[in-house]
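Pasting two entries for a bug report.
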Amino acid sequence: MPRVGVFGGSFNPIHFGHLLVADEIAETLALDSVLFVPAGQPPHKIGTDLAPAPARLEMTRLAVEGHAGFEVTDLEIRRAGPSYTVDTLTALRERGALHLLLGSETFLDLLSWREPAAVARLARLVVIPRSETNFDPDGADARKVLAELELPDFIRVARDGPRSPARSPAPLLVAAASLPISASDLRRRAREGKSLAYRMPETVAAYVSEHRLYRSGR
């Protein structure tokens, strides 16, 4: 059965930090592919300076172009209403053994999602600690999420270690290199007409410039 990474997000805009994490996780876990899922209406980001969904989809497609293991789906953008991960994973369940990529802060917020227990049943959770945070997998907050979702303790996966048992429901804790790039900073730079070079693929930077994204309040 194919091992498929599911990487959801607003990708507002997508940048090298996203791409590096996806590539490292795919390599570490021996995933057959990583599916990027731009959100149509992110339920937790209402009122932010969100670029139109078709623009974020196209930027994501431009960013992964040429990478044999990366794919993009417009599943959430085609679906009406807020983009709930449980619905997405349900629609993708025939693709293979799903691995949901989550930043550590997102994992700690998981109980606020729609049907979080179903999310954990539909996909193996892959938790990626961010270097600028103090995520403690043994701390009370992380333990609460594991307990509420009735999940075993994390399996720590080393970059050069063997891939994890496919049948285990335990979340995977995987360290990955990160870049000091933030989407909010990129939106600010675009709004101020500053350079986006070396922060995202050239094709994405050109798209942002050509379509004047994040200008005039966007």
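Entry 2 (this is the one that rendered wrong in the viewer):
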Amino acid sequence: MNKQTQLDQMAADIRTKNVCPDLATHATQLVMGDGNLNADIVIIGEAPGKKEDLEGVPFIGAAGKFLNEMLTAAHMDRSDVYITNIVKYRPPNNRDPSPKEKAEFWPYLVQQLDIIDPKIILTLGRHSMEYFLPGSKIGEVHGHPQPVTIDGRTRIVMPLYHPAAALYNGSLRQTLIDDFLQVPDIINQAKRL
């Protein structure tokens, strides 16, 4: 079974098992992810926003534009990476996803990672970071890649601030760009492992 078929089956399972029914009721659609299914990098945010919910593609609003700028600065393109969120439905009124909602979607995120099999996982913001690095504070660990065992497999996880944070706090913008510019070197190191 090819990767797209596996991801389509996973989306069907989420709908059939009625994962997070309250979110599903308020959302326009399930937003699974977008990008290269053979990517070395998977980028994980927290949940779809309004625009993402309407169009079914993650990170296409203002934070997505900044993410695209960072990819360009690192000599990459969206087509080089796979982008998803820990929670696949938009929470009402753009609220943060709850711990219960994140926990319900976690097994599906792990399955997504197993299918795509990236060299490095970039978490954007604390919501996606906390499942990979529990108890960590984003202000202390951002930009520092770490080996993490997920479902019996060791993967390199690099936490970053969420691009939306840089939109609200201009001082984080350069920090996020500087952290992101390390990614190509980290991938090269991961390929040698």
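Dev reply: Rendering is fixed now. As a check, the viewer should reflect this: The chain has a mean pLDDT of 93.
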